[in-house]
Amino acid sequence: RDFNERCAQCSEVNWGLTDGGRFYCRSCHNVTERTREVINTEFISNTRVQTISRGSRNKEKTDGGCEWYVCEGFQLVLKKQAEALEALGVCPQMKDEILCNFWRLYLQKSKQAYCDRPDGETVKALPVCDSSTDVESEPETPSLLHLLSLSESEGDLQTDSSFVSSTSKVSASTSVCSGSVDGSLYFTKNQKEKLRMTMPMTLSFCYMALLWLREPMTLSDLLRFVVEGHIPYLNVFQHFPEKMKLYGVDLKIFCVESWPVYEEVYDKMLELAAFLDLPRFPDITDSCFLHPDMLCMKYLMEANLPDELHNWTCRVVKKISIGEADFLTLVPGNKSTRKVKYDVLAAAVIIVVLKLLFLLDDHYEWLLSDLAEERNTNNKEGRPYFEFKKWYKVIKCSLDAEQKKLDEERAKYQWRCEKPLFYSADKKSKVLKRRQMVVNLQNQFGKLSGSVRPAEKPNPSSFQLSWSEENTDGNCFHGHSLKGILQEKRGVLAAMNPDYWLCTVELCRERSCDHLAHYREVEFPQSYHFVLRLFSFLLRIQPSTIHDDVCLIEHKLFNKKLCKKPKYNTVIRK
Amino acid sequence: SSHEHKLNFQKSKEACLNYIQDAMLQKQWKRAAEFLTFYIEALEKDFSREYMGPSEIIWRIGSEILWHHSHNGMKEFNSFIEQMKTLAITRYLKVSLEHVFHLLCNGLIDEAYQTLSLAESWRHGEQTSVQDKEMKLIEAYRGLLDYYSWAKQKHILLKHGQDGFEDLSVEQEMHNCFRKAAVNLKEIIKIPGVWDPFVKCYVDLLEFYGDHDEARQVLNEYAYNSKFPANPNAHVYLYQFLKRQGESKKSLISALKILHDSVPSHELMIDFNIMLQKSKKRKKRRLGLEVIFAALDYAGCKENVKAWSCLVKQLKQIVISEKHLDWITQEWNSRRDWWPAFHFSHYLAKRNWQENESLSYEKALVAGILLGKDCKYFKYVSHQGCKAQVKRFRMLKKFVNKHNPVYLRISG
Which residues of A touch B8 (CB under 8 A)? Predict the structure, then answer.
């Protein structure tokens, strides 16, 4: 969209992006030499930018702090997060270009920088990311922020904050309510249309950038790394420079007291992409990590299921066309297409395949397992036949142990940061005293329990459960064969199971309901609940989210059959 | 948004508390201490007005853990408690009081006394009514410890007296303690409540210094003032006092009557029965029978030889005189369908004979009268007794056989 030149060959303006980041004409497939980076800097210089060089920052406040704006704080947060992602192996382009540019675009759209303010008010721009092109070197006269005059302020603020629109210097109107200049403005109702920045949204930004670059990291991976501490999130503000003092309302903005929820981050990401008017994201093709075929492979390995199941997942993906680039690729703002959660989708595909092969009605799968066991006694091939029962035992054991560990870790989680925070200066001594007492008590009881405070984080790893074929205890099912549960039919191996039960007969309408379907454990077979639980643990999300996608896939798979026969029961023949 | 499953600070701490609770219930102190370490940071967010906030939780749980599992013993415990006292200033008195209990349990009387004195002099702003009560308790316990010192001095004095020494300073000290103790003890027992140890000590003091009237009044108040919760011990103390004072049987009996109504199984019921049996009044003797039967209804007296012998005495007296047999019938009516299994089973016959011959003797007589000579208890025991050639068993057999017609009349 940004690129408005006419195509050399066909004179159309209809550009898309190749995998290599080059623009190509959709009408005639002419590939240009122009790459995205070039475009981005161009478009930025198209807008009027007002910048300030660092030197003219206003005099420091009495407590040694300087003035800073909330969005500067968030910029620092994003920077830290990008650095951490780079350390995890994400390509540097993400930090140096993509995230940077998304952020600048956001600032522009939300009128916090890089734009003219209405009524001639101008905003200070920010020191931008280090490695980008030198936008800040343009000299401009310093401009001041004129605070908006407010008739009411939110009840959140402790003291009466009646900001008056004035031409006076910013420092004079900074109230004690926050260390940042505009912290107290943050909770006013005006901000609603501008998509106010929040801590969870920083993760939305990160994920959006990862998705643009099609990095091999799903949203669930990202959030897991956050919780495990590999990506700064909780208490990230303690890395702000000394001069940026945080207190009052800033705490409400930057201090998190809860872990980000997958759905929240994802929905915000969509909102953000639409807000920024981004074009269609780079295509997700079948060589991408995020493609269901790839992710299924990964999750099959992690779930210790036979590799042969991958053939089946690919078949399902193909049959319902969810492997198409058009289905998978994000087109922001397009309300008609359903947005894809790649990790959830892949998990759901696997579950559907399991249902196809094993039925999972708490009855058939065990019968089938016994049959496979029988066949195994005469099995002359090198590989054993897959037995559901054995797999279930192994996985249940591991899953229960891991879940228990996770639950204990969650109970032991330490939320406070090294640097104590004060809501206001007069509370400082009280807070410090408390902090001292907390430290003393922790030492005392820590000694009693003999435990060493865990200082090391677990190494970041893409796989949480790993199974090795070299293990002699036979716990690895990757190489097992499905022949034990399949039968020959017209020269093709087909599932023995002729039945299937639908999770739901009808999908909820998106407009009236948040979900496609509703999941309640008691209404479904235990085996189904078990596999949901397994993937729910791996992805760290609620089972209902996966259940939604399972329903969606089933709907796509069987809809035609259902429509043909108006009368049906929940168990259908394939 | 309705993400109730979202893990936040509060949920995380709640989960932590659950783990602590589980560990404590299973007495896994190390594990409890471990999780408590992770809970402690909740103090920094203690803005709550909840019923029990983090600071109180940490005080209570921490005390419990340190009490059961500590490397440095009382030293560590004390330093922890001192921190807790400063943590929540409104709770200072309560924490001090519980600290005192812990010290007393460890025999650290002097330290307990110091802590109490310190707490007594503590003032902070307006005293709430709760703190008022806590202060009264603190003063009362100090009074108790003063009594304890008094008792020690008294003991020394008596000992010296025996050895022929005179010790004015000890005597002086003793009287000092008395004065201090008396003031505080008197105060606390004015408030309706259960103050057994305080009452006992106070009465002891009063008796020593000869103020029997005051003592009597205190005990009467304690036992009969309806504002005070019903307390059988109050009547026991009163009875013991009256006995010491040599009061008339009449007042002793009236004191014990209430005890019989509230705790029929009390061991004093045996004394009660003895007194009643001897009475000239028929009503009293009748009551005596009721009292002793009631006492034996309970498992506590099952193997009490004295109780049985009291019953035997009265039954014998009635049987021989053949007067008031209906009394026996009346008492036996409500018991005839369960006493045989409760007291007179074949198993018990064997056991009683093996373990306690006197017990079996008394019981056998009762069984013989109430159940006749053919009941299994009597048959077994008397047979064993005669076999062993113990004289009184032969007498027993004769007696029961002689009075068998009485049994027939009782059993109706």
Answer: 257-259
Where do the domains of chain B lie?
A: 1-88
CA distance B296 to B339: 10
Mapped onto helix, strand or coil, the DSSP state of residue A474 is coil
Could you tell me which residues come within 8 angstroms of residue B256 by beta carbon, excluding any fewer than 6 positions away?
B235, B239, B268, B269, B271, B272, B275
**pLDDT tens-digit readout, B32-65:** 999 999 999 988 876 555 677 888 999 999 999 9
Contact residues on chain B for A258, CB-CB shorter than 8 A:
6-9
Residue B232, classified by CB atoms within 10 Å of its CB into exposed (0-12), middle (13-18) or buried (19+), is middle
- B168 vs chain A: nearest CA distance in angstroms? 49
Indicate yes or no: pTM above 0.80. Answer: no
pLDDT digits (tens, 9 = 90+) for A508-517: 766 666 667 7
Give the B window 215-244 contacts with A, CB below 8 Å: none
- B79 neighbourhood in chain A, CB within 8 Å: 444
Closest in B1, B38, B43 to A414, CB measured: B38
Q: Is A53 a domain residue?
A: no
Ranges of beta strands (E only) in A386-508 are 486-489, 492-495, 499-501
The answer to whether residues B410 and B379 touch, using CB atoms and an 8 Å cutoff, is no
- Number of domains composing chain A: 2
Does some domain include residue A296? yes
Q: Where are the alpha helices (DSSP H) in B164-211?
A: 168-188, 196-208
Give B204's Cβ-side CA count (13 Å radius): 15
Question: What angle (nearest 5°) sits at the alpha carbon of residue A475, between those of residues A473 and A481?
Answer: 120
Task: Give the pLDDT confidence score for residue A146 in this predicted structure.
Answer: 20
Number of Cβ pairs closer than 8 Å across A and B? 96
Q: Is the interface score ipTM higher than 0.85?
A: no
Q: How far is B6 from chain A (nearest CA, A)?
A: 6
CB contact at 8 A, A177 and A87? no
Residue type, A500: Y
Tokens of B374: 């053919």
Q: Do B287 and B256 touch, CB atoms closer than 8 A?
A: no
Q: SS3 for B61?
A: helix
- Nearest C-alpha of chain B: how many angstroms from A438? 6
Asked if B47 is an interface residue toward chain A (Cβ–Cβ < 8 A), one would say: no
Task: Convert the pLDDT of each residue in A30-56 to its tens digit.
Answer: 666 655 544 443 333 333 333 332 333
Q: Measure A403 CA to nearest chain B CA, in Å.
A: 14
Whether A125 is in a domain gets the answer no
| pLDDT, position B236 | 95
Nearest CA in chain B to A258: B8
For A318-366, the pLDDT digits (tens) are 999 989 988 899 888 777 677 899 999 999 999 999 998 888 889 989 9
* SS3 annotation, A184-253: HHHHCHHHHHHCCCCHHHHHHHHHHHHHHHCCCCCHHHHHHHHHCCCCCECEHHHHCCCCCCCEEHHHHH
Q: Does B165 touch chain A (CB under 8 A)?
A: no
| Predicted pLDDT at B297 | 95
Does residue A256 sit within a domain?
A: no
Q: What separation in angstroms does the CA of A152 have from each of A69, A155, A159, A175?
A: 21, 9, 13, 16
Contact between chains at B83 and A441 (C-beta distance less than 8 A): yes
Residue A25 in 3-state DSSP? strand
Bridge partners, A422 (sequence order): A247
Q: Chain A residues with CB inside 8 Å of B72's CB?
A: none
Strand, coil or helix: B217: helix
> Is the predicted pLDDT of residue A294 greater than 80, yes or no?
yes
Domain of A383? 292-405+469-561
Which residues in chain A have Cβ-Cβ distances shorter than 8 Å to B29?
A: 448
